[in-house]
Amino acid sequence: MAKELKGRAIHLKSRPQGEPTAANFELVETTIPEPAEGQILVCNLFMSVDPYMRGRMNDVKSYVPPFQVGQPLDGGVVGQVVHSKALGFEEGDFVSGPGGWREYHVAPANQYMKVDPGVGSLSAYLGVLGMPGMTAYVGLLDLGKPQAGETVFVSGAAGAVGGLVGQIAKLKGCRVVGSAGSAEKVKHLREELGFDDAFNYKDGPVAQALERTCPEGIDVYFDNVGGEHLEASIGKMKNYGRIVLCGAISQYNATAPAPGPRNLMLAVARRLTLQGFIVSDERHQERRPDFLRDVGGWLREKKVKEVETVVEGLDKAPEAFIGLLRGHNTGKMVVKLASPV
């Protein structure tokens, strides 16, 4: 690069106490270094905001290291190669990888994979063809193990993961019920994604809604919410039911420990399986070729829909993230940073 390149990045200015605010973030201009041998320079086109990022803002040990105050945040991106010093990558290639919350990123090429814009939109590789899609695929099929004719309940069903879980469950011949946080989202689940039934959890106790929508019980519960949803679902599980513990967004901003399900003894009486998972684990990543083949095929055949909420501009990324935690998105929340060249 003959000319010094400048780019902006969002830094973690301070650790949130409870719900994040704009004051926890800082927009900083930085100089972008030239890539070394084996590295590529990527112009980020779309970046992802995801619920798990809230946990990384706390200074606690977890399955991924915490973000550091005064340093750029990180996350998934889809971008275009500007300069390559790595075999197999050329200027103009579209790639997905790390380095979100910034306009440019330099990193080893082995952290990226090429993406095909002919299969889905570029931003789909952050959603239905990306980490959320992979989470839905392995969580439902490998852990939930749905069988045709079974009832699958999905909480947070209008989100990036939950929406695809429901669509895959329908493809497998299941009866699918979802919960969401507004009448508009409930309508979306029923009319756009093909859920058999759905309810607004803000309208009343979840247990009562499940009595109405799952009168014969639940075979598979895909939990994205935790809290009241988990307790109510345990109460409606059939014998030998499977609960897939994917997330607990209802508790991510909590400043005190949330109470656990008071009916956990039912897991013994009904011989339930409750299993958590992290999609980045090696045993799940081995399923990536199957995931891309199946979900990519369903997307091309229009058997599943790509649903996203797009916010424009890096400076709006904190707003998009806060909105995600408040449930302002339908489908995958992404931030558009630039257009392809």
From TrEMBL:
SMART domains: PKS_ER
Gene3D superfamilies: Medium-chain alcohol dehydrogenases, catalytic domain (3.90.180.10), NAD(P)-binding Rossmann-like Domain (3.40.50.720)
GO function terms (MF aspect): oxidoreductase activity, acting on the CH-CH group of donors, NAD or NADP as acceptor
Pfam families: ADH_N_2, ADH_zinc_N
Alphabetized SUPFAM superfamilies for the sequence: GroES-like (SSF50129), NAD(P)-binding Rossmann-fold domains (SSF51735)
Lineage: superkingdom: Bacteria
Coiled-coil blocks: none
Residues of the Enoyl reductase (ER) domain: 18-335
Keywords (A to Z) from UniProt: Oxidoreductase
InterPro entries to which the protein is assigned, alphabetical: ADH-like_C, ADH_N_2, ER, GroES-like_sf, MDR_fam, NAD(P)-bd_dom_sf
Identification of the protein by name: Enoyl reductase (ER) domain-containing protein
